[in-house]
């Protein structure tokens, strides 16, 4: 068995290396085949027989935003338990089975989705889908596994309490999304984790893992005929009715932000600014993508040039737009010496205000568009990226021509578009500010009294 397992792993590693070869030379990956299985599962397939491997991503609308009140962290614990035994196989036996065939199978959680990743040689696709189906539909959820999951998550939370950047990110979400399900940490809290029971996990799985809410994206060495057979064979008992959970309420951008400081005895202060942004269906989505690149998207961005290159206040600084289902955040992140925290914060606000008031130069716009469209193929240069991208396209209902049209839509963004979106979203008074570090005085207000 050792010799067989070694051969399988060698083949899988070789296939992984080959699977990262660019796939877009002939346009492969820009379109996906699609069908709906008998239980309502939506399946997208990018067929590529260049290498003998298959990547699968399965998404359910069951992220941490669907955690019940008082049991925050339930989705994350369920993901931890996902490959801890199924059917008659204990956790140890299930892991040995996956290892024997060189199959990688695990789950993780975002705020919107419960995401399952499967990697396998195409010669073991039958065994891989069987394991996926068992984990989805016949999980063991043993008591000792739940105890290990909760202990692991609590230890992780304890470690995170000592990390200023992690605490700053957690506090920023609490401020931006106060009263919304996005506010609580994906991992939950030390208190909420203690209230999670096996019955909670089982109920979460039964209500969240439904066929009509399932999106499965597959990329690699399999054709649609075989994929249909495998889907019907191994997911035939997936519940065919929609989840009873109501849709997420849209997050609301408040008219004025605020600031919070957490004192921590660390050499650097973590600074985070953020506000509620938009989602992928907003007409300004592409203009915001370009604006974000100009603001803090890389080493040529305004934030990077002024805070790192000109002032030397931080090793790195960036902005990011995360387009979630119920309006995602637009945020800025940097770490700096405690003594320079206020100077860095003031400079970030100046950069934001100048961009909001003056817009961008044509050369900045051209450079940002060139970078975004030029780096676009790198987002799709492997089976894993293709599967993940098409799963997100299906989950967020972006349409079959999304990838084909993306570069064209980015190139169509004008200076006026960027200026309009900057005026709409870069009102510095609407940004929330979090600082975590050692400082003697709280962050000062701006002249207008806003943070």
Overview of this structure, please?
With 451 residues, this protein is of the alpha+beta class. It has 16 helices and eleven strands. The strands form two sheets. The protein has a six-stranded mixed β-sheet with strand order 1-2-6-3-5-4, with helices on both faces. Strands 7-11-8-10-9 form a five-stranded mixed β-sheet, sandwiched between helices. Helix 2 packs across helix 8, helix 10 crosses helix 13 and helix 13 packs antiparallel against helix 15. The longest helix has 18 residues. It is globular, with a radius of gyration of 23 Å.
How large, in whole angstroms, is the Cα Rg? Answer: 23 Å
Which structural class matches the secondary elements?
A: alpha+beta
What is the general shape? globular
Largest sheet strand order: 1-2-6-3-5-4
- Average per-residue pLDDT, rounded, comes to 91
Number of helices: 16
Please indicate the percent range of residues in DSSP E strands (runs of 2 or more).
Answer: 15-25%
Q: Which bin fits the share of residues in helices?
A: 40-55%
Low-pLDDT runs: 1-25, 445-451
